[in-house]
Amino acid sequence: MATELQLRRYPFSRESRQAVQSVARDIGDLIEIAEESRGNYIIREAENRVFASLEQKEITTVNTGDRNDLLIYQTARLIVEKIGEHRLKEYQAEAESKAVNKFLSNERDEFVLEMCQSSFGWPVEPISRRDMKEDLPHYLRNFDAKMHFENFLEVAPRFHSNEWKLVNRYVEDGLVPVRKSELHRLISEKFKVLILTSTLNVPTLPSNLTQAVQRIESEIRSKIKKTDPIKITAKTVNALPPCISAMHESALQGRNLPHMPRFTLASFLLKIGMSQDEVLGIFKTAPDFVRGLAEYQVRHIATKGGEGYTPPSCKTLRGNTLCTVALGEANDPLCEYIVHPLSFFETRAWEISNNVRDHSWYSRKRRKMQSF
Ligand code: SF4
């Protein structure tokens, strides 16, 4: 059974999620608590936690003895989702995962193995107690546990060094031996993926949470180097990710797009700097085009919450069968190194403007975020 400290340290764990449910069943409850005066410290600590991520500082857990401490991580996630800046989310995922990796080094092995099973469905077996290792085959003596290769492959392809490649690992009966430190790395990376691929429907926030969001937004401008919106031109159209390119093509050919691709295309083009009129122009040849309605929809997408809607992530597009790479209709190596079409566009537009044609730098400089 996890201690209170462990519940705070591992927010992805099943026990922690259950404990959070006992305090706040859903986002509505969380917001209600945050709105009350007892929630002020939750917002303050959540804001500190997001700032720590942004500044790439260490994340620490707060322990006031109050069960509401469990809501600090949830509130930090809520703030980041509300801001909708994917680079901030990447900073958060990185910082939270690093903290977990550090905390795990102080845990008992039994606790870690139990958490793998209950939280990720990874049945990890200890190899042996240390004093019995000399009885083990030589190749197993440096390892501490064995895990199913499918579970190993959920995360390992995101790491670049050769020891993470399955072809370089010993595999017996479908089990891969791993060192303790490797298991910790796999767990923390899995947590990172969970953050990067999760989305929250954030309702209207109370004023104290909105103020926290605004404070962080004003910091982001100086901490995260914002690139100016890149205008779509004959050159930058080549920077569109395969999914958006397919939607763009269909719209230009005068096909009616269903709601999801229409929303995705409009929100994407607005975010990369197209004007509302330019976006309207793309849809105007569709047989179902009704100017007044389309104007209203594009304005709504462009202005929602002040900043406009952020287009859906790769995970959402894949779930809606709109990821052309997952469908096998297109292929681009960059897709493995991003989780959001906007990240694809930023990187590819940078490559185009710097005349970078060799994409082999992805595997040296970036981590794999998804595979197909
Ligand atoms: S991986 Fe993402 S960016 Fe690439 S095609 Fe699929 S949804 Fe689009």
Overall spatial form: globular
Structural class: mainly alpha
Q: What's the mean pLDDT score? A: 88
Write down the domain tally: 3
- Biggest sheet character: 3 strands, antiparallel
How do the SSEs run, as a string of H and E? HHHHHHHEEHEHHHHHHHHH
Q: Taking Cα atoms only, what radius of gyration do you get, to the nearest Å? A: 23 Å
Portion in beta strands: under 5%
- How many individual β-strands? 3
Provide a descriptive summary of the structure in words:
The protein has helices spanning 4-9, 14-23, 27-35, 40-54, 71-83, 86-104, 109-120, 149-155, 180-197, 207-223, 242-252, 259-271, 276-283, 291-303, 314-319, 341-353, 361-365; strands at residues 125-126, 145-148, 175-178. It is mainly alpha-helical. The protein has 3 domains: 4-85 and 195-211, no CATH class; 102-187, no CATH class; 227-365. Strands 1-2-3 form a 3-stranded antiparallel β-sheet. Helix 5 (71-83) crosses helix 10 (207-223) and helix 13 crosses helix 14 (291-303). It is globular, with a radius of gyration of 23 Å. Bound molecules: iron/sulfur cluster. The site of iron/sulfur cluster has 12 residues, from helix 11, helix 15 and helix 16.
